[in-house]
Amino acid sequence: MLKSFATVSALALALSVPGAAFAQSGVLSDWGVPDMKAAIVAAGSTVTKEGALDSGAPYVGATTASGMKYVIYGTVCDGAPKRCKGANITASFTLDSDTEVDQREKKIDRSAVGVRNAGDNSLEVSRYIIFDGGITRGNLATNIEVFVEVAEEIWNGGGE
Length: 160
Hints:
Elements: H1 2-16, H2 20-25, E1 27-28, H3 33-42, E2 46-52, E3 58-63, E4 69-78, E5 83-94, H4 98-107, E6 114-117, E7 122-130, E8 135-136, H5 137-155
Helix pairs in contact: 3-5
């Protein structure tokens, strides 16, 4: 009887801690570096670096199996260690000229990502993920996979 009471008490305590139910169900209402590293690996990429931006927001760098590099950085972050309500996935590709960047930017029509001329002959591809209301770990990995698929197509000259 005493053992059952201890088990029930521990479960009640765990469920009363904010976020505990989300962690148990595999749903993230925000993310930290360990969460994002696991999602990157689940999406088939390799984690290459991690750190913090000047603002203190965390980032995780990754490389795909074909060698494309990308970074995921946090937005709307707080706490220690930082947990973020948003994630921006970004890859940049250096082209021969800003004119070529502008031409490529106009041709790319993919609703899954945004593209822009980032200056210095750089075409930036990005995807933003909002964690408000929660996102499953599987869906986070899928979002990364979709970004990688589209960004690699653009990296290889496609995306139109």
